[in-house]
Write a structure and sequence with these properties.
The protein is α+β, with helices and mostly antiparallel strands. It has 38 helices and 30 strands. The strands form eight sheets. The chain has a five-stranded antiparallel sheet with strand order 15-16-13-12-27, with no helix packed on it. A hairpin with a 2-residue loop joins strand 12 and strand 13. The chain is elongated, with a radius of gyration of 50 Å.
Length: about 950
Amino acid sequence: MKLRQALRSSVAAITIASVAAPTGLSAQTSEAAARPSAQVRVAQAKDFSRIELGGRAVARRDGQTLTLQLARGANPDISRLRVSPPRWLKAAELRRAAGGATLVLTLADNADARVGTADGSTYVNLFEKPPAPAAPTAMAEAAPVAAPTPPRANPVPAGGVVRMATKVGAGQVQLSFPWANPAGASVFRRGGAVWVVFDAPAALDISAAPRGLRQMGGVTTYRGNDYAAVRIESPSSTPFFAASQGATWTVILGPGAQVEQAAQIRVVRDQAGGPAGLKAAVSGATKVVRVADPIVGDTLSVVTALGPAKGLPSRREFVQMALLPSAQGLAAESYIDDLAMSQDGDLVQIGRPAGLTLSPASATVVRAEATLGAPQPASLPGLIDHQNWAKTGSGGFLSRYNALLAAANEEAAVGRDAPVAARMALARFLVGSELSFEAIGVLNDTARRNPSVMEDPEFRGLRGIARVMARRYKEAQADFSAPILQDDPSISLWRSYVAAQLAQWPEARSQFGAGAEAFNQFSPTWKARFARSDALAALALGDVNGADARIKLALMDRTDPLEELATRLVQGQVVEALGHKDRALRIYAAVAGAPSEAIAAPATLRATKIRLETGKITPVQAANVFAGLRYRWRGDATELETIRALGHLYLSQGRYREALEALRGAGSRMPDLPEALQLQADLAAAFRALFLDGAADGLEPVQALAMFYDFRELTPLGADGDMMVRRLVRRLVDVDLLDQAAELLKYQAENRLNGVPRAQVSTDLALIYLMDRRPEQALQAINASRTTILPTALNAERRVVEARALMGLGRYDHGLELLERDTGRDAQDTRGEIFWKQKNWAAAASIFEKSLGDRWKLPGPLSAEEEGKLLRTGVAYSLAGDDVSLARMQQRYSGFYDQARNPEALRVALTGVQTGQLNVSDFGRATADNEAFAGWVAKMKVKFREKPAPLGPATTPAPTAKQAVAPTAARG
């Protein structure tokens, strides 16, 4: 202690002395100056002297001679040591050889030395030897000598052969080695193999080794002078355990139950004086053996020990060596040639003559504490060890997390084939702490670096559990569906839970039954959650009694208050399904007072629904509750159910816009939830009811149009969407909103339709343009929707529309050419219109007369369209000067005068121009251009009703083009 105190109190003095001390002769030869040199510093304190050499050196001591092997090419100047050696140094000599320089220090007879490294330099501390212990007293001399430890019984059986026994089941492989007496063993993993080393050189019979298993591959035995070993090929992600029972060692491969929980070996810094090293207390340690690994080509240092099992859960990396993960004993792989591992009783020491390069003591202690206490796998892939995984120790959460993270990073840095024990331990800690997203990140990174872990059932189960906690149910379902987990009952319960969250009710019930045998192995919290989810599945399938039984199961174990309230909430749903609404309302009202909004919000929602159904509150009051609740709690199925309830309530009150806004407000968030699909279906159904089933017919056309524009993305594709647009367009045309109707059809044609439907809608668009006196846009609509194959009727309609557009542009000949071979009625009418425009009276009159056919033979008054055609026929024949045809028409149709809408007009038209009642200009005004005979007839009817035709040469003003087209557009 006196020396250590002197060392600590003299640090500042040594630093000052090292700067002030001379560094050697000032004059050097040119040859020495050209060589690399190692600086030598000398300092002296009261209780010790210090020599410091720049660079690393390997020390070796023989009595009072200390030899330092310097780095190659080093050429230190030791003149200071020769001329004026410090206290406790007798002499110094520099020896040069082909391999480099060696510094030989001869110590004084009463001196001792300690060699170490600091800041890249090697130092030698010289100090006086401690005084020899006092001579023993006479009484001590007389004390009896302790009896020697009796030798351990020979574990090798008679015949020298140990036969391995095998047992396969429950996803595990058990390999048993029965010895005659207890044998020391070490079980550790190196890369893709598990080693089992025994401290006795027996022959190992592995003829019973199984083949073709996922947990293990080939098995090889090795034998040395003082050991026997088995190397078992096993994927790096496969857990391994060791257990002893009497003289039998059992090695277990694969996740599942452990025969015994292995104790954890603590490896710490050796704080005793001398070079830096490590030590570990390994109870029952028997020996250190050197085992050659023929696959890697190096030699491992292995510590065997008697049972029970004790090991190092994860790999420990150091600069010059690594300790391998073990289920029993210790094993080290060395990166240097002079690593030494020794055993003295239960104490194992690891070091080298020059000392190991170690991290600062504080960092080593923190990391060791957490790593050696790494969370271990649960007995089944679907179980969570809440009691042990989330332990943080005395350092608290952050210290525990940082230590596990550091160990995981060290493990990952080894490379692609590195073990995954430390990373899986970190993931267990995060899952046990319910840090689901962090656990997913660790596990995903592990799978990316080491894809073989995807075949590990614990990895799949752990990641699936983390995804469930993060409410990533689809992703969790993918993990739980892995074939490797197919028959695991603990995973079946997770599958049931996920299926219930995704509204896959039959699957949820089936999987719950498959996992019943593992139900009691879960914590009370998860037992309650599994039972609740199965109760919901039973409710959805109409099994109310089954749901009631599951609620009773969920309430059997005592859980925290919030979990019990969540169960009571589902119990309220069961009671409601049984028809006891008043009792259910009382349950909901009680749960609504929960301190957690995740439980209180759905209870408030269901209580409000019951109050509304039973008339205890008005729809307006319920709407206010729903509107507040949708912002009070967000992010899960409750929000979506609230929005659905609010939307339905608004629809029932005729508040269509608010209903659509509420339903659309949820957007596409939480797409995995079944409620999201139901909400989108409700939104589409509401829009369909408004614009296809006629619910919006009570709105003003402008209001209906504005609502349609605001929610046009809800328009369904196909016939229903086309019908919606047609219905709305018809209403717009009825009120003469031709521009808006055209915009609606234009959007439909350009953005939603193709092929024949687009051609049909474009034809309707062109008709509206024609009604709005916009023939150029009508022609563009036709041209933009041309396609190769169209129905014959649609082609004929499009020809007529195009011809009318050409007529509107004054391109009469083109219009006639387009209709040249078309003998349809609409084509004939359009051809007559063109002839009328061209003032080709004879041709126009002939077409109008043909369109009337034999109507003169049928009794009854003429329709408005027939009356208009007859009027135009008479005017055309009169203007063409065809008195014979005019007389024929008068003879045939004179009997229809009295029943006509405008008898005077017909009488004048069929009598001729020179009757004295109307002149040619009067006929021109009476037959002003009109693009629809029905519209023209309607205007003529209004004209003659409001202002009768004069009896003399008086004239009636002709209607303007806008007045002529408006009534037609309004009627559609």
